[in-house]
Design goal:
The protein is an alpha+beta fold. The chain folds into six domains: 133 residues, Response regulator (Rossmann fold), CATH 3.40.50.2300; 109 residues, PAS domain (Beta-Lactamase), CATH 3.30.450; 116 residues, Beta-Lactamase (2-Layer Sandwich); 126 residues, Beta-Lactamase (2-Layer Sandwich); 69 residues; 136 residues, Heat Shock Protein 90, CATH 3.30.565. Helices cover 40% and strands 26% of the residues. The chain contains 22 helices and 28 strands. The strands form six sheets. The chain has a five-stranded parallel beta sheet, sandwiched between helices. Helix 1 links the parallel strand 1 and strand 2. Helix 1 packs across helix 5 and helix 18 runs antiparallel to helix 19. The longest helix is centred in the C-terminal third of the chain and has 45 residues.
């Protein structure tokens, strides 16, 4: 059955029965094909979904039995594709993010006006229509796949843009890719490295897909090479045909692909391999030499010759112990005898140049699998800088310990190859130990870090190991000698890596930040209480207000009373108070992402967004300050709105510079001297229609930036607000 005009069955779950019933009434009015069932309990909602044909669920968020997201998660377990709209009065970025993560179809915040029900009805209709269309499309696609799967050869389908939309099981054998991997590619994906059989690139418009799509004609017997993900080159025989839509236009293209790769001759593979090895040998940044079991050097690369300051002719024929004069010929020859092919020996020694100068080297010796006799290859690297670096690290550590001696800072030195860690006395004292009292188990990460913090510590450490950060930096808890947990800041840096970039050694410090963390927790608890207050205001006040506003419209339709307008104004006043309370509760957070803001530009923008009636603005500032632009804009909008509300529709507002901030004044009636200290308190207002939160919000925004704000009267008699302690970046 087509989805057009079909009935839409909706389940609305909300713990407010009056609001749920009113919402159902409005939805059924807005959409004649829509029927709505209501319940106040998510568990009852699950039973209704199981027993009835429900097309869409609309759910509140904050309910006593379960949150809307918890309800969504139980629904998704059984009905992963059923449209689910979160319709809530608890609106926040956190709730929206959690809803999206849980797989919500749509998210809509409750309002007090009746237009919200028209929006909700449209959201429901769109969600149901989209799901039904997807089901119909999936059924059509399934039928086509079943046909293509029966074909015994490798078959792929590309859409009009050349993207793979289907591949049968044979694609794995021919293209070296799983079917799921093909859908991320297009016909001309650079990773294919498509060339003709002679190795020449093929222009895009001459590739098989473009020829079939652009001409609408089938193509047979086209040959080209591709690269598999593992680098293997394959030669394909390609036959293709177009698929047309109802209008006769090419909609997609189907190809049959056959692997016709011939085996390369052994000599060709050997030649290519030899060429690559020779290039690596000659261009390696390391010193490489090859010698016999008797120690005679038979080959050497350019780097080896340059490091020893000798020509290839001088080096070839020498014994290795003439270069490495610390070697004993009999001892090393005995070692070579018991080495098997592929065995590897690592050692540190010294090479001596032609002029008698010596330098330290790290040598990796391997026995080669050659048929014409035993050969040994030595790859050597000059480690002079590494040795110097180790000495610098040792010196740095000594200076660091001397510099912080007596301070409450611990120093650690971590050998990352053995996991052994050394500490100074301050580190032990920070946790209530002496160095002698430290047990071996205390030196492991797992034993000294709080279990809840281990994941974050490892994440910070991994990021530094992968060279994504310049320093390792973590704040976590460590257990003290008396079993308590203390907050510390752990700062460190990897100071030594091997040739492959793997970390070998790191050093760092621990700083006691326990008191700072306690203060931070107190601030977080205050913030949580504010959020709880905002939640109560949003849910417990807005829902009944929404119901009252909704039913008032029914009353207005059925009777004529002069008191209805007064009730509407009271509702608007209540909504304004709620908004003010919510804004005030959330403005205590510190300002973030402070950037340079030009006051004149921002004020012009604010002037356009506030209803200023016939008021005028005078700018006497060319200052740029550091601020959170969004919150500074809110501060100016509140001050402008306050001046218009109290100074009259034709008030003149002036903004100018102070030595360490700015001021905004008006030509209104000013502020009574006795009220100068109370105007910023929540609820203060001389306007009977105001909510009394505007100036309190201004103070919160200023404090969040670390600014001071005060009020006085200007020479013209109006109010003058001064914001000081502001960081200016100049004109």
């Amino acid at each position: 059955m087509s989805s057009t005009g079909a009935p839409i069955r909706v389940l609305h779950v909300d713990d407010e029965p009056d609001f749920a019933d009113m919402t159902a009434t409005f939805l059924e009015r807005e959409h004649s094909q829509m029927t709505v069932r209501t319940t106040t309990n998510p568990e009852e909602g699950r039973r209704i979904v199981a027993d009835a044909d429900i097309d869409c669920i609309v759910s509140d968020y904050d309910m006593p039995h379960a949150t809307g997201i918890e309800f969504l998660e139980t629904i998704r377990d059984t009905y992963p594709d059923l449209p689910f709209i979160l319709y809530t009065g608890k609106g926040s970025e956190e709730v929206a993010a959690d809803a999206i993560s849980a797989g919500v179809t749509d998210y809509l915040q409750k309002d007090t006006g009746n237009d919200q029900y028209k929006i909700l009805a449209n959201r429901i209709k769109n969600a149901v229509t989209a799901r039904r269309s997807a089901v119909e499309a999936e059924q059509s696609r399934y039928r086509l796949e079943q046909i293509l799967k029966t074909v015994p050869s490798c078959v792929v389908q590309l859409n009009y843009d050349g993207e793979f939309v289907f591949a049968n099981d044979r694609a794995v054998e021919v293209l070296g890719l799983e079917r799921s991997d093909l859908t991320s590619r297009a016909y001309n994906d650079p990773e294919w490295e498509i060339r003709d059989v002679n190795g020449e690139p093929i222009p895009d418009d001459q590739l098989p897909f473009r020829q079939v799509r652009d001409t609408g004609d089938p193509l047979y017997g086209f040959r080209h090479t591709i690269q598999w993900p593992d680098g293997t080159e394959k030669i394909l025989l390609v036959n293709g045909a177009p698929l047309f839509d109802a209008d006769g236009s090419v909609e997609s293209v189907v190809f049959s692909l056959t692997d016709i790769t011939e085996q390369w001759e052994y000599e060709d593979r050997l030649e290519q391999t030899t060429a690559r090895l020779e290039a690596l040998f000659e261009n390696s940044p390391d010193m490489i030499d090859v010698h016999t079991a008797e120690g005679t050097i038979v080959d050497a690369n350019q780097q080896f010759c340059e490091a020893l300051n000798q020509s290839p002719e001088e080096l070839l024929g020498q014994k290795v112990w003439e270069v490495d004069r610390g070697l004993d010929p009999e001892t090393v020859q005995e070692t070579w005898e018991w080495m098997d092919v592929g065995d590897r020996i690592e050692l540190e020694t010294e090479f001596t140049t032609n002029d008698g100068t010596s330098f330290p080297v790290e040598v990796h010796l391997t026995r080669l699998p050659l048929e014409d006799g035993d050969r040994f290859m030595a790859v050597s690297r000059d480690i002079t800088e590494q040795k110097q670096r180790l000495q610098e690290i040792k010196s740095l550590k000594e200076r660091l310990e001397l510099a912080i001696e007596g301070a409450n800072v611990g120093v650690w030195d971590w050998d990352m190859t053995t996991d052994a860690v050394e500490y100074n006395e301050q580190w032990a004292e920070m946790l209530g130990y002496t160095l002698e009292e430290l047990d071996p188990h205390l030196r492991t990460w797992e034993s000294r870090v709080h279990p809840d913090d281990i994941e974050a510590v490892n994440a910070a450490l991994d990021a530094h190991i992968e060279q994504k950060t310049e320093y390792y930096d973590s704040q976590h808890r460590m257990q003290t000698a008396d079993g308590e947990w203390k907050w510390i800041r752990d700062l460190g840096r990897i100071v030594e890596r091997d040739n492959d970039g793997e970390p070998l050694r790191a050093v760092g410090i621990h700083v006691d930040i326990d008191e700072t963390k306690q203060h931070q927790r107190e601030l977080e608890q205050k913030s949580e209480r504010l959020e709880e207050f905002a939640s109560i205001v949003s849910h417990d006040l807005r829902n009944p207000l929404g119901v009252a506003s909704g039913y008032l419209e029914f009353v207005d339709d059925e009777c004529d009373s002069p008191y209805i307008e007064d009730i509407e104004q009271a509702h608007e006043r209540m909504e304004a108070l709620i908004e003010g309370l919510l804004t005030l509760a959330r403005e205590g957070k510190s300002a973030s992402e402070q950037t340079p803001v030009t006051l004149a530009d921002l004020l012009a923008e604010c002037w356009d967004t506030v209803d200023t009636v016939d008021a005028s603005l005078t700018l006497e500032t060319n200052q740029t300050i550091m601020a959170d632009e969004c919150r500074l804009k809110q501060l100016f909008e509140n001050l402008i709105r306050n001046a218009v509300e109290h100074g009259g529709s034709d008030v003149t507002i002036t903004v100018g510079d102070l030595d360490n901030g700015f001021y905004i004044e008006d030509t209104g009636i000013g502020v009574p001297e006795a009220d100068a200290e109370t105007v910023f308190e929540a609820g203060y207002s001389t306007n009977t229609g105001g909510n009394g939160f505007g100036l309190s919000i201004i103070r919160r925004i200023a404090e969040a930036h670390g600014w001071d704000v005060s009020v006085t009267n200007c020479s013209a008699g109006g109010a003058r607000f001064e914001v000081t302690n502001v960081e200016s970046t100049g004109a």
